[in-house]
Structure of IS605 OrfB family transposase:
Amino acid sequence: MDRTIKLKLEMPNEGKENLKQTVVLFNHVFNEVASYGFNNHTHSKVSIHHATYKDIRELHPELPSSLVQGARDVACEALKGVKLKRLPQSHLFSAIRYNKRVIRIVFEHGYATVASVNGRVKVCFTIPKYYEQYLGWEIRSSALNYDSRNDLFYLHVTLRAESPKPSGNTVLGIDRGIVNVAVCSNNVFFNDSGVKNTRAKYAYLRKEIQSKGTKSAKRLLKKISGRERRFVTDVNHHIAKEIVNMPFDVFALEDLTSIRVQKRRGKNFNRKLNNWSFYQLEQFIRYKAEALGK
């Protein structure tokens, strides 16, 4: 099983500037490689490597070769993901991938050395108490993310450990719905007036703000959508945790495939249906159950 932890990085201003330049150049190379693959209708890493690597190294010798290869791999995966139907593009400060050759993470001392366009940069971090349970796991990959609004860097580290062996065969059936987020076959319902009222509040605010149509209204709408998304995530986490801690070994969820394209029952119903992440709840139940050997 895999877990990803997020670490806030601290470094001198010189190191920060080096990493900014690295992020920008990595994404520039991504776009160059993606353009070649799209124009030549291929996402093969081998053919794209032979066609682009030498030229990119000559144009951008300051970017470490491993990062050039990383940008190529990410671009090929993006082309494959969209089935070459459109050109994937990275933004100026999109997150970049690091492999083990270009980053060294030392959890016990709270630092890492990261490759950049001007050599290695030493970054420091503080590990939150909750993440300490993962420190003995195997490091699989990492991604560097730059928050341009707050001028902060974050390192996302993916760790892996062997999943516990499943045991037992007692089954809990789970239905997901609109009035009740989850209904279990042991007659446990997950919903309360707080969730219902909060969902109604956000629906009302969206309606009022969208009617304005101004730039400030659009900014506020984006801010509110973030709050609502975090609210939904928090509720789904709590529900999933309570479900997997029930005395059952197997969790059977109803199949919701194509539920959003089935016959609708009016504007209000459609809004409520699209306003909750049922798939996210399923994913939370899946990984929390796996960690418990269920």
